[in-house]
Amino acid sequence: MLRRLVLTAAASVAALSAVPAAAHATADATVVAPPSSPSDRLTVTVTGAGGAGDGTYELKCHPTGGTHPDAAKACERLQEVTVWGTDPFAPVPKDSMCTMQYGGPATAHVTGTWQGRPVDATYDRSNGCEISRWDGLVPVLPATSA
């Protein structure tokens, strides 16, 4: 019995020493890997916004970079609207009651990865809810006026 206990302890030490230095074992001996390289990377394509707002931009956060015209403020805004348990890119719920107003022809498509989750969201300014949803992501999306 003592021999089996010593061999089991030795095997556990050997297994844990093979884990990369940045990883760690939890109390129940589950090995938790270190976070992978930053994956907050989005591609933002905007049409119909007019002026300099139209185009396709890459936005990288953590660290900030890419071709987005205001990457630092865009990343800051995404951090502000990212709340645990919610999707900052979620569409307007189907049962929403929205004002019937037109905010202009601007459309946007955002794809990529944010906080380790895939993003594939479309935006327009076709009613009050969609206008509010768009405006909530400025400066990720350009500020527009109808």
Description:
With 146 residues, the protein is α+β, with helices and mostly antiparallel strands. It contains 3 helices and 7 strands; from the N terminus they run αβββββαββα. A 5-stranded antiparallel sheet has the order 5-4-3-6-7, covered by helices on one side. A two-stranded antiparallel sheet has the order 1-2. It starts with a helix and ends in an 11-residue tail after the last helix.
Structural class: alpha+beta
User: What overall form do the CA principal axes indicate?
Assistant: globular
Strand arrangement within the widest β-sheet reads 5-4-3-6-7
Determine the strand fraction and express it as a percent band. Answer: 25-35%
Helices and strands, in order, run as: HEEEEEHEEH
Q: Mean of residue pLDDT? A: 82
Number of helices: 3
Instruction: Measure the end-to-end span.
Output: 79 Å
Evaluate the radius of gyration: 23 Å
Uncertain residue segments = 1-26, 31-37
How is the biggest beta sheet arranged? Answer: 5 strands, antiparallel
Tally of strands: 7
Estimate the helix proportion, in percent.
Answer: 10-25%
Keyword list:
alpha+beta; 3 helices; globular
Quick recap:
This protein is of the alpha+beta class. 24% of the residues lie in helices and 25% in strands. It has helices at residues 2-17, 71-81, 128-135; strands at 24-25, 31-32, 40-47, 55-61, 65-66, 107-114, 117-124.
